[in-house]
Amino acid sequence: QVQLVESGGGLVQPGGSLRLSCTVTAKTFSIIPMAWYRQVPGKQREVVARITTQGAEYYADSVRGRASISRDNAKSVVDLRMGNLKFEDSAVYYCNANGPGGTWGQGTQVTVSS
User: Fold this and answer.
1) What share of the chain is helix, strand, coil (3-state, %, to 5)?
2) Is-contact 55 73, C-beta < 8 A?
3) Which of 36, 81, 87, 99 has its CA 20 to 30 A from that of 71?
4) How far apart are CA 52 and CA 54, in angstroms?
5) How many CB atoms lie within 10 A of CB 89?
6) What is the rounded CA–CA span in Å between residue 46 and residue 80?
C-alpha cells in the first residue's frame, strides 16, 4: 500500500519559485515511478513532470526549462521545483505514484498572484 503526502504549496508572486515535496510511504519506494500533476477547476488533471525508477525525467512543454523533478530514494521523497512562475501555474498540484491508475496525494494549492 502506498500513501502520499504533499507539502509546500501556497501563494507565490509571478516570477517567483516554489518547491513541492511528496513524502511517500511504501514498502519499496525505489521501484515506484513518480509524477506531479496539476489541475485547475473545469479542466482535466495534467502531468507536470515524471521521474522513472531509473531517474529519467519528463516535463510538460508548459514547464520545461522552469521545472525540476527529483527523487531521494533514501528518504522516500519526490520534489518538484519550479521557477519563473506564471499566473497559469496556479493549480492544485498532486503527487502520483504508479501512473494515473495508481495512488494520488491529497493535493496542495499553488496560487501565483501579485
Assistant:
1) 5, 50, 45
2) no
3) 87
4) 5
5) 23
6) 15
Residue with cell 518547491: 19
Q: What was the pLDDT predicted at 68?
A: 98
- CB-CB neighbours of 8 under 10 Å: 15
**For residue 102, what is its C-alpha cell?**
495508481
Grid cell listed for 50: 515524471
* Each residue's pLDDT expressed in tens, for the chain with a length of 114 residues: 899 999 998 999 999 999 999 999 999 999 999 999 999 999 999 999 999 999 999 999 999 999 999 999 999 999 999 999 999 999 999 999 999 999 999 999 999 999
Q: Cell numbers at residue 52, please?
A: 522513472
At position 19, the amino acid (one-letter code) is R
The Cβ of residue 18 has, within 10 Å, a number of other Cβ atoms equal to 20
